[in-house]
TrEMBL record:
This is 1-deoxy-D-xylulose 5-phosphate reductoisomerase. One of its GO terms (molecular function) is 1-deoxy-D-xylulose-5-phosphate reductoisomerase activity. Mn(2+) binds at D149, E151, E220. GO terms for biological process: isopentenyl diphosphate biosynthetic process, methylerythritol 4-phosphate pathway involved in terpenoid biosynthetic process. Gene3D superfamilies: 1.10.1740.10, NAD(P)-binding Rossmann-like Domain. It catalyses: 2-C-methyl-D-erythritol 4-phosphate + NADP(+) = 1-deoxy-D-xylulose 5-phosphate + NADPH + H(+). The gene is dxr. It comes from Anaerohalosphaera lusitana. Belongs to the DXR family. It comes from the Bacteria. Residues 5-131 form the 1-deoxy-D-xylulose 5-phosphate reductoisomerase N-terminal domain.
Length: 388
């Protein structure tokens, strides 16, 4: 069957790589819709090149500029945040690639899950905050959720060697980010430039900062709970600076399966699109003899407290991950704007999580309320003491 793809967030790091992958896969993979938030010139260029049936820009303030930039593109043009849900449920679309950053992707991810689409998910935040609602919606509609996040793609591939009930533990690997070997003093004085200098992966700014705090790994622990239906006490984090082993699964008989590959998101993006088949890929192939050695070490939970909080939040469940994620999104935004120091991100997350009274089995409305409260809490706390 031809894949008719809606690519939500086509101008970002995952989005542009997804376009490279689909181009290389050939005519069975059709780009039906493209969306972006503010990079209207790039979106217009993609619209002219890929000629999708629909394009959408979610920032309404840039609508006129976008329409002018579209030139001779003749497809349908949608404007505003609601266009994401409109596209996610279009009957022509069978595959929704979600490459939006943050909780902003939640309504579209939920809509796609409710409408039985195949979801190739890079956008981890909706899974973290609404895992229960999303997996319930997918189970009801028959929607498939396929991971793009490299660690989760690795686990998904390893799990094909056994049953979920036979899993002893899931071992999520982490590069350790730019501050893996830094002292607490160096982390405290880290600049924006230091935090954006990731050693192995090239990604959007928010996830790059999340990798520097190791908040990204904390979010990925919660993401794994929902994607694979395993309790958090069966999930471990292992630091692996070379980013070659993308994650591992240990089974009850002691066998450990691992998935290896070059650190290139094109491989997990492609697997989510071609699953259950494999096609020739565009990522470079591994030369293990040339690499010589791979190294592993435990995470430093004193320097990267966000990871420790993440395990507690995953165990608490309910509204805890909502607060955890929203506090981080708010703090990272302020950090990227130069409003707080790097170390303050983790402190703000801890303060916010501490203040919150966890509620279980929350509705979408309650979730959005809790999300809003956490963002306001962080914004107020950051303006009172930006450098604590
Ligand atoms: P990015 O910042 O490069 O791109 C984000 C995309 O989302 C852009 O197309 C942008 O237009 C869109 N967007 C931003 N705000 C929006 C809003 N409010 N409404 C609608 N669209 C909006 O981000 P990225 O690095 O590509 O990451 C995307 C997602 O994939 C994130 O959830 C990230 O955690 C996850 N992820 C990324 C990588 C990676 O290698 N970049 C790896 C694993 C997982
Ligand atoms: Mg990852």
């Amino acid at each position: 069957m031809n894949k008719k793809i809606a690519l939500l967030g086509s101008t970002g790091s995952i989005g542009t790589n997804t376009l490279r992958v689909t181009e290389s896969l050939g005519s069975h993979y059709e780009i039906y819709a493209l969306t972006a938030h503010s990079k209207y010139e790039l979106l217009a260029e993609q619209a002219r090149k890929f000629n999708p049936a629909v394009v959408a820009l979610t920032d309404p303030q840039l609508a006129d500029k976008f329409k002018n930039a579209l030139g001779d593109y003749t497809g349908e043009v949608l404007i505003g945040p609601d266009s994401l849900c409109t596209i996610a449920k279009m009957p022509e679309v069978n595959t929704v690639v979600t490459a939006i950053v943050g909780a902003a992707g939640l309504p579209a991810v939920l809509t796609a899950a409710e409408h039985g689409k195949t979801l190739a998910i890079a956008n981890k935040e909706p899974l973290v905050i609404a895992g229960e609602l999303l997996t319930e919606a997918a189970a009801k509609s028959g929607a498939k959720i396929l991971p793009i996040d490299s660690e989760h793609s690795a686990i998904f591939q390893c799990l094909q060697a056994g049953k979920t009930s036979e899993v002893q533990k899931i071992i999520l690997t982490a590069s350790g980010g730019p501050f893996r070997t830094a002292s607490p003093e160096q982390i405290k004085n880290a600049t924006l430039e230091d935090a954006l200098d990731h050693p192995t992966w090239s990604m959007g700014p928010k996830i790059t900062v999340d990798s520097a705090t190791m908040m990204n790994k904390a979010l990925e622990v919660i993401e794994a709970v929902w994607l694979f239906g395993v309790p958090v006490d069966k999930i471990e984090v292992l630091v692996h600076p070379e980013s070659i082993v993308h994650s591992l699964v240990e089974f009850v008989d002691g066998s450990v399966m691992a998935q290896l590959g070059a650190p290139d998101m094109c491989t997990p993006i492609q697997y989510a699109l071609t699953y259950p088949d494999r096609e020739t890929g565009i990522a470079s192939h591994l030369d293990l003899a040339k690499l010589g050695q791979l190294s592993f070490e435990p995470p430093n939970l004193d320097n990267f407290r966000a990871l420790k909080v993440g395990f507690d939040v995953a165990a608490a469940g309910g509204s805890a991950p909502v607060v955890f994620n929203a506090a981080n999104e708010a703090a990272v935004k302020i950090f990227l704007e130069g409003g707080i120091k790097f170390a303050r991100i983790t402190e703000l997350i801890e303060e916010c999580v501490d203040k919150h009274q966890v509620r279980q089995h929350i509705s979408l409305e309650e979730l959005l309320e809790v999300d809003k409260w956490a963002r306001e809490f962080v914004s107020n706390a950051a303006s009172k003491s930006p450098t604590l």
